[in-house]
Amino acid sequence: MKNYPLLEVRVSTPKLELRASTDELLDQLAEVVRAGKTHAEPAPYDDPMSFYETDPDLRVAKWLRAVWRRRGTVEPGAWRLNFAVMVDGQPVGEQSITGVDFATLGTVTTFSWLSVDLRGRGLGREMRAAILHLAFDGLGAKEAGSDAFVDNRGSNAISQGLGYEPNGYEWATRQGEPALLNRWRLTRDAWEKHRRDDIELHNLEACHALLPLT
Ligand SMILES: CC(C)(COP(=O)(O)OP(=O)(O)OC[C@H]1O[C@@H](n2cnc3c(N)ncnc32)[C@H](O)[C@@H]1OP(=O)(O)O)[C@@H](O)C(=O)NCCC(=O)NCCS
Q1: Which pLDDT tens digit goes with each residue over 29-70?
Q2: Is the CB of 166 under 6 A from ligand 1?
Q3: SUPFAM superfamilies this protein is in (predicted)?
């Protein structure tokens, strides 16, 4: 979309590509959301979360509204870039990055899900490595955070494997029930130790022109 170049940002790795979530890609990804392929057991998402909506049409509508709201909110305190995870040319998941007081603190958090059909093949780890490359190499982040419920083995294994250090616990609710979250932090120095040389960033000029990075 030439009039909103943040929707042209891409990150490519040998296994997948993160492409900024245009409405066209969201429309395709909606079929994965409609089919409930976002879910996992134990429940991985803290409230509020559209994916817990049982009516498929309402689930898709709530998910789209949340994506659009965040796309349209670019403030120094918080901005978010949302990407469709592309594997073999198909959108199969979502990976986002949120800047939190980025100009002052240099901190980001990330969030992701992958279609249940494609889990367990290393793609979740690859998505995280890709978004971290954008954060640290592309945007100059100082630290990345990630939270996951203590029983979310996949997400916690990815954080640990990529060099994050434990950063305490926090209570949250999922589907109304209290549950404990693991908090993780990855410093720039720790990221440098795992830094990849096979991840490419594309059309990043838009981030520097349109996001409150400094
Ligand atoms: C989290 C998620 C993206 C991981 O994707 P994935 O492609 O299955 O993960 P990978 O194949 O890259 O596995 C990464 C690591 O997690 C481990 N892992 C993944 N799923 C696991 C499971 N269900 N149980 C135990 N370990 C698991 C793998 O063994 C691997 O460990 P290793 O690096 O030590 O070998 C995916 O499971 C998902 O979409 N879950 C639902 C949404 C979610 O939890 N989002 C994140 C928190 S809100």
Answers
A1: 999 999 999 999 999 999 999 999 999 999 999 999 999 999
A2: no
A3: Acyl-CoA N-acyltransferases (Nat) (SSF55729)
